[in-house]
Amino acid sequence: MGRASGTTKAPSESPSPVTPQPKRKRVEKPRVAPAEYDIPYFAHMQLNPARYPVTVGAPVGQPPFEPAPYGGHRAKKSMKEDAEDDSEEEDSESSEEEVVSLKRKALAISPPHNGFSGSDYKKAKMAGGRPALAKKVTAQMDSDDELIVQMKQARYQEKDIAQRLIDEGRTHYHPKTIGTRWARLKKVMQVRNDELLDQDLTDWHEGDDEVLAEAIAKADAEVEKLKQEIAAKKWRMVADKMKSIKPVVNFSQNACRKRHEDLEAGTAKPTPESVPDPDDEVKARIQSRLDKEEAIKKAARFTTHHQNLDNNAWTSRMRQY
DNA sequence: CGGCCCCGATGTCTTGCTTC
DNA sequence: GAAGCAAGACATCGGGGCCG
User: A283 vs A118, A138, A286, A292, CA distance in Å?
Assistant: First the structure.
């Protein structure tokens, strides 16, 4: 399946000698180009004007994407990269593993030079905005996520939020994705708020307790409704279970419920078999039941697949409760 | 329309094998 | 033994389908 081809890594990803990576130590490759070419190591460095015209390195055409919206990750990457670069000679004890991880993530998430990889083309279904690429859902939201949260909280429709993101040249999410992302963002924000509460860094404010009581009342009403629905389902199950246990019977859920209530109240009609001196009609009813049972037994004798009968003869057409 | 569930795609991490 | 590679397991994402 989609195996990460990240096993061939760019030389710049090689950890520095101080990287605490016990398993895989890489040979430190020369990171600075030979001096005779006058090529600066960092892309942002000025080319030697004595050797290269000032127009070299100037942008050509329009960028396929606005760089800013990837800011969340790209900004982190460049900041970390800068930090790493600045402290490169200082044998910094800062978490270089984290830097490598961030770089990897940024490489995975940020678009390549032309803005699209092969699979990205498939995903860029519509014009406008950047194609939606997998982006981590964290409480540290980027501006796209912040906009989603703001508009969602303001009760905007998902299609409107999706359109707004496109109009602003942000990520081109499918409206369905807005809903999914909003649900996940809510979740991580709740976790974050729990942490803040634990650390006493946030509070319940005035009016929150009243809303809590209102929410509990609404939830209670919903739970009560669900209980009633489940109780109703119970008698459908009872009717089916009865038929499953004793195939000759076939009473409805209402009949089962009424019989149960009558038995509880002691008002249930006696069975024909319990009548002490049955008349002809009662005898006929008893015989009719015996005949039906005999017919079922007879039919069952024709198959040796009792297990199959037990399992499927009725349950295969059981309703979904 | 939006919530929920699910699936395919893809990234990340770990482990074992191969090569030098 | 170190380094690189391949493969599997797992996590997470976007988005489709269903349903209230």
Answer: 81, 75, 5, 14
Whether residues A217 and A308 share a domain: the answer is yes
Q: Is residue A144 part of a domain?
A: yes
Residues 183-202/A with CB < 7 A to strand B: 183
Looking at strand C, which nucleotides approach a protein CB closer than 7 A?
A: 2-10, 12-17
The last residue of a domain, from among A203, A234, A249: A203
Closest C-alpha among A128, A164, A126 to residue A144: A164
Closest CA-bearing residue to C1' of C14: A177
Query: Are residue A213 and residue A305 in the same domain, yes or no?
Result: yes
Task: Name the residue range of residue A254's domain.
Answer: 209-317
Would residue A89 count as lying in a domain? yes
- A158 strand B contact, CB < 7 Å: yes
Q: Does A105 lie in the same domain as A53?
A: yes
Residue A4: inside a domain: no
List per-residue pLDDT tens for chain A, 321 residues long.
Answer: 333 333 333 233 333 333 333 333 323 333 333 333 334 333 334 444 444 444 433 333 333 333 333 333 333 333 333 333 333 333 333 333 443 333 333 333 333 333 333 333 333 334 566 777 777 788 878 888 888 888 888 778 788 888 888 888 888 888 878 888 888 888 788 888 888 888 898 898 998 888 888 777 777 776 776 676 667 667 777 887 787 788 888 888 888 889 999 999 999 999 999 989 889 999 999 999 998 888 887 776 654 444 443 443 333 333 444
Q: What distance in Å separates the CA atoms of residue A162 and residue A174, rounded to the nearest whole number?
A: 7
Q: Is the CB of A218 under 7 A from strand B?
A: no
Q: Tally Cβ neighbours within 10 Å of residue A72.
A: 21
Kindly determine whether the C-beta of residue A10 is less than 7 Å away from any atom of nucleic acid strand C. no
Q: What's the rounded Cα separation, in Å, for the pair A275 and A262?
A: 18
Question: Who among residues 161-200 of A has its Cβ near strand C, under 7 Å?
Answer: 173-174, 176-177, 180-181, 184
- Quick one: A215 and A187 in the same domain? no
